[in-house]
Amino acid sequence: MKKSIIVGKTNAGKTLFMINFAEYIGLKKIVLKQEYPDGKKLSKEMSTDLAKSYLSSDREYKTQCIQSICIDLPVYKGKKEITLLDTSGLIDGIHPKLSVRNGIIQTLEKIQEADIILHMLDIALLIDNNTLSEIDRQIIEYGRNRKGYVLIPNKIDLDKDKIGLHTLRQEYPKQFMIPISALYKKGFDEVKAFVIRSI
């Protein structure tokens, strides 16, 4: 089964995207599998509404392990099952908390195993800082040499004047990107099409 991993900085919207994408393709319930850095594994079935309130947060490092769901995508006349992996947020530098560092290490290991990399970044932060973080630059450099990599600027609903997207496209004119709003499910058609093409 193909694996599609969602990576990016903390609070980029990765978890909300995973749940809303599952909802967008028609799921009302998900079976969430959690794999912790110490090897512990849990499996929980829940509604997508409960998952949003339980898993998604504005708090940094709410996600400290690999969380995955299996979804069916339509391919030609049939369906193809893929695993969608949500990950701990990456940062510039070294985090002081051991549990966060372990989650980051786990994320970096899973990136190498993934068939598809959905690199999510918070476009609102790009507007505020007027530059990409170092870790986002490193992910872009790693991903652009791999098949199945796409840059996904999130929170385009906050980029009313398209300043962030314009800045990003100027800096990476050849990089394929799909702007989305994970909150409002904008751009999900394009993400689905990209994943299907990459399977």
Account of the protein in words:
The structure is a single chain. With 199 residues, the chain is an alpha/beta fold. It has a single domain (2-198), classed as Rossmann fold (3-Layer(aba) Sandwich), CATH 3.40.50. The protein is built from seven helices and seven strands. The chain has helices at residues 14-24, 48-55, 98-113, 123-129, 134-143, 163-171, 188-198; strands at residues 2-7, 29-35, 41-47, 66-75, 78-86, 116-122, 149-154. A seven-stranded mixed sheet has the order 3-2-4-5-1-6-7, sandwiched between helices. Strand 4 and strand 5 (78-86) form a beta hairpin. Helix 1 runs antiparallel to helix 2 and helix 4 (123-129) crosses helix 6 (163-171). The radius of gyration is 16 Å and the shape is globular. It starts with a strand and ends with a helix. 35% of the residues are buried.
